[in-house]
Amino acid sequence: MEAQIKDQFGRPHTYLRISLTDRCNLRCFYCMPENGIQLMEKSNIMSLEEIIRIAQIYQSLGVNTIRLTGGEPLVRKNIDYLIRQLANLGVNLKITTNGILLDKYLDLFQEVGLKQINISLDTLDKAKALFITKRDYYHRIMDNIQSAVDSGLHVKLNVVLIKGVNDQEINDFISLTKNNPIAIKFIEFMPFKGNQWDWEKGVSQQEILDTIREKFKAVEAVDNPAHSTSVNFRIKGHLGSFGIVSTITNPFCSECNRIRLTADGKMKNCLFANSETDLLTPLRENKDIRSLILESIKTKKFSRDGMEGKLDPSVYEKNRSMISIGG
Fold it and tell me: Is the full-model pTM beyond 0.70?
């Protein structure tokens, strides 16, 4: 089906990220503000049937890929029902998770054909994991990652790099790709409300590549899929690969095809966008939200919601925290 959701730059939008909840069983400091967040009222969160209905509407407008996010999506009650219903839409269904509950759903993923899974993992060190996440699930997460790989899932590990925290582990992550068919996705530290962002803590794409090339000489570029958010590479002879999401130093917005839907039913055109379009209220009033979707996308800015050059805290601090947007 031809995409009908096109912005003012002619970019078709075929990829929808749906946040199922702002709840999470971890407390990673770059995602969750130190003092926590005001959780959404349950009555304001999309029901499973509302998620399915909105997903059907997006699919009718040409969306062919849906990624489930959170918070932590697998804490959402009756998510097995939701996954089965969304899989029936015939879209490419994906999920991003922290891995804690993954073992409970591997059979379901096999059943519905959900093959692509991103797992947030910022360190390979148990003590550091406790510092970053403020919870002790390290061994469970690592066991579940291995189980996901063994079950044949296409596993990506999302690694948010922060200087002085986990930047010394870059090559440790690369070493994982030698004998495992996994992809490591290094993500530059991004600014959101309350996460005390400072680019002095950031690790750039060039720094990442320089670090890897110091140890691994045979770094090869690989073809990037259409609309890829990462620049991708592999080490010659390794089963796996790695990519870099360079939102700060090398934005990849020119081919953006992504839309976000928050757990309370707000459409966000960009991760950095302050403006949102309420789809849930009119849906509950039995109004047609197709026109709202098509009108909203026309307001999308070309790159990072118009933040060019140096990122302005007066802008991104007005945005939501990462956990309430959806990872």
Answer: yes
Written as six digits, the tokens of 179 are 């004998």
Note whether 10 and 301 are within 8 A (CB): no
Q: Which stretches within the chain are classed as H helix? A: 48-60, 79-87, 106-112, 126-133, 138-150, 170-176, 205-215, 280-284, 290-297, 313-316, 322-325
Nearest residue to 142 (alpha-carbon basis) of 170, 188, 173, 111: 173
Q: Among 223, 230, 237, 242, which residue's Cα sits nearest to residue 156?
A: 242
249: CB partners within 8 A, 6+ apart: 188, 202, 204, 205, 206
Which domains are present in the chain? 15-325 (3.20.20.70)
Rounded distance between C-alpha atoms, residue 25 and residue 11, angstroms: 36
Cα 143 from Cα 119, distance rounded (Å)? 12
H-run or E-run covering 247? none
Segment 226-248, tens digit of pLDDT: 888 889 999 999 999 999 988 77
On average, the pLDDT of the chain sits at: 88
Which neighbouring-strand residues pair with 17?
Answer: 67, 260
Cα(324)–Cα(70) distance, integer angstroms: 8
DSSP character at residue 12: B
Per the CB < 8 A criterion, the answer to whether 84 and 52 are in contact is no
Packed helices 79-87 and 48-60: angle between N→C axes, nearest 10 degrees: 20
Whole-angstrom distance, CA of residue 25 vs CA of residue 48: 20
